[in-house]
């Protein structure tokens, strides 16, 4: 009988440590990599933060580099990068920046069939090493399948200086794995999708890790940040294994996409997702209180009111969410709309926010299960 196995595309290497970019030539050499003409894709700020350091590293190896500054994650910016790749005969792209820069570089590299390195300067979401790129086309956000990066290099010194809201955003995106996996399992039980326990286990474990033994206000601590970025990278790998964003995206993400439509100025994606995760956990019958207390320990907002999202707007987002992605079955497809207001008042009431923090329980005991996406068009403002 022939052996049965599956091939999974993952990065060749992952380097996470303080000041790792200063050792960039060492990282390249020890992985036996050589490129004729690297192209550095960055934002205007991230060029100064880290892009110039990457260029110096390549020059120490005798490699000439090109660079391009991108201003957003639009399809026009992707096409600019593609044109630069062809004109300069680039054979590798290094995306240096936040989520939008990395998505543009990742998608352009995939379309032009060249290698891609991910060098994030902020831990804002799990696109650091995922097979998905979110690109804006006109007034819509489109999620495209993309190649995984060849390597991921994360300098914790740079990450520790990132804006606080980007750290909160990454935290919110990571903890949502817990409710996302629950939604995935619900969909499987309803006969809507196939469940991949291997991918789900990876996603759950990383969310549990970031919440375990968490102290108060650890945002700039290297240990906390290493757990966070490691979890975001592994979430991307879980998506690669599953062949979709299912391990890290459920009702909480669709609610956030709905908020993007309804709010005049949406908040960072991961912050909206994190707030919606508490609500989703309650809908699922999970220990939303424990999750809420853990969020409060690091100063993460735990209610729409804290970030000036009106109650009516949040509830409208919850009602609209299932229509935005009809191919994704979640707890929102099982719960009657009348329950939304009841759960909202239970989870986000002022009395609940003011209660004394209780000792944390292990999240897995009652909420976590035991057990190339198609393009998705999402209207945005």
TrEMBL record:
It comes from candidate division WOR-3 bacterium. Its cofactor is Zn(2+). Keywords: Cytoplasm, Lipid biosynthesis, Lipid metabolism, Metal-binding, NAD, NADP, Oxidoreductase, Phospholipid biosynthesis, Phospholipid metabolism, Zinc. SUPFAM superfamilies: Dehydroquinate synthase-like. This is Iron-containing alcohol dehydrogenase. It holds the Pfam family Fe-ADH_2. Binds 1 zinc ion per subunit. Transmembrane segments: none annotated.
